[in-house]
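$ run holo --ligand "adenosine-5'-triphosphate" --emit tokens
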Amino acid sequence: MERVPILKIGDILLVSIQLDMSDQTAVQLQEDLAERIVATGCHGVIIDITALDIVDSFVGRMLSTIASISKVLDAETVVVGMRPAVAITLVELGLSLNGIRTALNVERGMELIAAAHADELDYQLDDDLDAETATP
Amino acid sequence: MTAGIDLGQPQAQSVRSDEDVVRVRQLVRAVAVASKLSLVDQTKVVTAASELARNTLVYGGGGSVEVTVVDNGRRKGVQIVFADSGPGIADLDLAMTDGYTSGGGLGLGLSGSRRLVDEFQIETSAETGTRITVTKWSR
Ligand SMILES: Nc1ncnc2c1ncn2[C@@H]1O[C@H](COP(=O)(O)OP(=O)(O)OP(=O)(O)O)[C@@H](O)[C@H]1O
Ligand SMILES: [Mg+2]
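-- output --
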């Protein structure tokens, strides 16, 4: 079975799917990513599907599952590079990519993750301040 | 890519593993390109084939796929037959409903692939298994 490589770039894990994945390869990627998120403490995952000429229900479900798993592990997933024909087909198939953030390309995806992470830091800071003012 | 494939003949692919499902996608793509389908239509028919071939494997216990270039005199198209000798589909109306799954799927394979093709025909029984024929025409 082939495996999809996962690259670490700064605080982000980048997965660029270059092959027509078998279902087994897709499931393996899910597991590999979960492990890498925990091992690296990364807060963002970018899945680049520019090279995919179709996304069927199995791969669509895998993308949703990865997004959910990474959320639980405190990382944000962004899917980038979806081809127009793939988007049209997904909608007609009836697949709603629930909970999945998308961006046009890797750069935009990185911006999204950076913004999401900054928001989260702000939020935690606010919480800390509230806690301070609340204590007499 | 299509070298060595005689597209005048039906192309057969057995479906015994999830690697075979990948092969079905590649075969259907090659035939869709040869039939001059638009990029969107290629994408739709390959996606439908992926769904139906996976059902052949998972629910039909494996089977075979046959892909043919068809010509109705005005347009070319791709015709694909998915056949298995599995348990058949007891309640076809239910199975064709968006969201119905007897496994852990999304229940979009049958209903969704019917939307993605121009013609969709299904014969199923407990004795003979399931046979689905789909056609996508060039525009
Ligand atoms: N070839 C087949 N033989 C027997 N039963 C089938 C076959 N194909 C589909 N079915 C039945 O029809 C149901 C619906 O199939 P469909 O492809 O729409 O959804 P799914 O495979 O369960 O999920 P998804 O395809 O979205 O991952 C299946 O759960 C299964 O019970
Ligand atoms: Mg299915």
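-- notes --
The longest strand of chain A covers residues 12-16.
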